Amino acid sequence: MSDNLSLKAFVVLMKSAKSVEDKIKKDINSFGMKTSDFAILEALYHKGRQTIRQISEAVLINTGSITYVIDKLENKDLLERINCKEDRRVVYIEITEKGKQLMDEIFPKHQKVIEHIFEDISTEDKETVINVLKQVGKKEENNKGDNN
């Protein structure tokens, strides 16, 4: 029986994730942006200056693709590259004033969309979902490389 519940939990999780992802993509597209562009700007907007590796880990985009997206955003003057004075191999990415102004305008609207998705879920249930999904993620992080 628990195997059936595990399968059902997986299917419900995947369907729910797809539904939320579609809603979020539609919202981000309404601002004339791609999800990857928004994710990078959002990471810099909230976390400040980051390396490409840090951004890649934060937004789950591989470093090869992220360089292309950063180039596009830099050409739009939404972010800039800054060389590290202590280590010439390190390049930081930082949101520009123009990028900050854009995020000041659109992020509150985006946050309202997310809040709307979860508005009928109690605080307790949200905390439960967070904790359960963390457990699933940690278990799989600890088991990387295992096929079981």
TrEMBL record:
- The domain of life is Bacteria
Q: Short name of one Pfam family for this protein?
A: MarR
DNA-binding as a keyword of this entry, yes or no, is yes
Q: Which GO terms describe its biological process?
A: response to stress
Q: Which InterPro entries match?
A: HTH_MarR-typ, MarR/SlyA-like, Tscrpt_reg_MarR-type_CS, WH-like_DNA-bd_sf, WH_DNA-bd_sf
Q: By what name is this protein known?
A: MarR family transcriptional regulator
| Sorted UniProt keywords | DNA-binding, Transcription, Transcription regulation
Gene Ontology MF terms? DNA binding; DNA-binding transcription factor activity
Enumerate the spans annotated as HTH marR-type domain. 6-138
Stored PANTHER family: HTH-TYPE TRANSCRIPTIONAL REGULATOR MHQR, TRANSCRIPTIONAL REGULATOR, MARR FAMILY
